[in-house]
Specification:
Blueprint lengths: L1 H9 L5 E10 L5 E12 L3 E3 L5 H7 L2 H18 L9 E5 L2 H4 L4 H11 L7 E6 L7 H14 L2 E7 L7 H5 L4 E4 L1 H4 L6 H16 L3 E4 L5 H9 L4 E2 L10 H9 L3
Parallel strand pairs: 2-4, 4-5, 5-6, 6-7, 7-8, 8-9
Antiparallel strand pairs: 1-2, 1-9, 2-3
The chain binds guanosine-5'-monophosphate (2 copies), sodium ion and manganese (II) ion (MN).
Length: 254
């Protein structure tokens, strides 16, 4: 497969780049975290989104090395922001279940943080509910170790997986990200509003904070504020953007 062959060279050729999508703190009105979303600057096909190569990388196992690059790049960025207006930002990186299989993942994250002298609580890891369905004991062990380091754990796309709620009891979860599909019509549909409010309350009663994904309108933002959702992420605030654009946007007070 041609793309797979290209993928084998992409790391060595330094073709990956992280874009960042800000998360707005609804209490303070400040950008407190950014989600890192990988892009591939393909030499012939242009800028490729993750859907076009992450599944391929998961199949071939290259995802492990890509994930290591992502963590290191995020730590380097956090270090580069030291002493700048961005110095309090947290970066959330996405990890797939396949990446959690790697026994050395936690050691690698610890080493990357240490190498860049970045406190662990500046890094957040986003995982989807798939990790609560298979290899549960292994995944619990990995995430407990990661949490002990001080890395924050977020459940991505919450509410659309097939897992039980029991894992919220067993796993060290700091943050739930309500899937975009509940937010899109949250101000028009009673059922989406009920589900969103229930998730916020469930999370808060467990001491977990909540991010709403896919926020595109002021009405949605106001709804989320009124139900005490902690953070909002979506095109209303910003699309995923290159780091230079992020720094400019923050400097001009987004
Ligand atoms: O940026 P975009 O909206 O196209 O992202 C689509 C999906 O790609 C998201 O579900 C996100 O979790 C995934 N993704 C983005 N960056 C990474 C990454 O660095 N590693 C992994 N494993 N998934 C990523
Ligand atoms: O799976 P994950 O939630 O990590 O993927 C985020 C994806 O959703 C990215 O591809 C990103 O570009 C996209 N996205 C982020 N914010 C919005 C939004 O407000 N509206 C829509 N339609 N897509 C969004
Ligand atoms: Na994500
Ligand atoms: Mn998501």
């Amino acid at each position: 497969l041609e793309l797979d062959k290209d993928l084998s060279q992409a790391l060595a050729n330094n073709e990956f780049v992280l874009f960042y999508q800000p998360q707005l703190n609804l209490d303070t009105g400040e950008i407190q975290s950014v989600e890192a979303l990988i892009r591939w600057r393909h030499p012939r096909r242009g800028l490729l989104p993750p859907v076009e190569f992450i599944p391929l990388a998961e199949e071939s196992g290259r995802i492990t090395d890509i994930g290591r690059w992502v963590v290191l790049a995020a730590c380097r960025q956090l270090a580069a922001w030291r002493g700048t207006p961005q110095e309090n930002l947290r970066i959330a990186v996405n990890l797939s279940g396949r990446e959690l299989d790697d026994e050395d993942l936690v050691d690698h994250i610890r080493e990357a943080l240490a190498a860049e002298n970045v406190p662990a609580d500046r890094l957040e890891v986003e995982l989807t509910e798939e990790i609560f369905i298979q290899n549960i004991e292994h995944n619990l062990n990995q995430l407990s170790r990661l949490h002990q380091l001080g890395v924050h754990l977020a459940i991505d796309d919450f509410g659309v997986g097939y897992s039980s709620l029991g894992y919220l009891r067993d796993f060290p979860v700091d943050l739930l990200k309500i899937d975009r599909s509940f937010i899109t019509e949250v101000t028009e549909r009673h059922d989406d509003a009920v589900i969103t409010r229930a998730v916020i309350n469930l999370a808060h009663n467990l001491g977990i904070e909540v991010v709403a994904e896919g926020v595109e309108t002021e009405e949605q933002l106001n709804f989320l504020k009124s139900y005490r959702c902690n953070f909002a992420q979506g095109y209303l605030i910003s699309r995923p953007i290159p780091v230079s654009d992020l720094e400019k946007a923050l400097a001009s007070g987004v």
